[in-house]
Here is the input.
Amino acid sequence: MVTIHLQPQSRTSPASANPRAKVQMPKFPQPPTFADKYAERDYLKGRLAAAFRIFGKYGYDEGVAGHITLRDPVQPDTFWVNPFGVAFSLIKKSDLIQVNHEGVVIDGGEVRLLNTAAFMIHGAVHKHRPDVLCDLALYESFNGIVLAEKEGEDIAKCLGTKKASLLQNHGLLTVGGTIEAAVFWFVQLEKLLQYQAQLAADAAAGGRGHETIKIHDDDAAFTYKTIGSPMAGFFSAKPLFDVIEKECGQDYLQ
Here is the structure.
């Protein structure tokens, strides 16, 4: 499940934002801006379709489960999401469906089936986080599949102002101010949980009576400022989108 818009976007590059960085980069690529909200909608729907292709490629689909949502720039109280039952690897821009905050599909492709869990979680996140453009969630709730409005509200409140959440018995949730950032946070979080290297290292060290060397708080904060900012997330996802564009051509933009 993906959600975009986490924090206000910084217009500085990841490196130039940190005076400690030895190499000061002049300027990193920035998310495009639009005077025409309809042109912005069209562009973002294409990026959302690309995000689904990326998730399909990396095996982040679970049957018919999982969703990525995009706040509509024309009607910000609505969002675009994948239709229920359409494979991530086949999703095109024209397949996406537009949903209002009453859970009604008001526009979109031929398949207009809406995953109830998608609406409950993403609707709540978009409502409580006006800074979020994109919201990603993939599953296996707190209590399993989210079908109740209260649980969606609880998830949104637990997420707070953060960019990621681990949903017990359910899956992962990341959000971002851009589709790219939300995708990158999800990919990195999935890798982290898959390896669980730190947990294994702690367990092994504990068995020998030793402790692992932990990163200092100052170093952790500096690392976040360098590669954990919204703009760093946006830029870090660029290779993923570049590769999927090369592999899929214009198909996902149909």
Summary: The longest strand covers residues 133-139. The two ends are 22 Å apart (CA to CA). The first helix runs from residue 37 to 57. The mean pLDDT is 82.
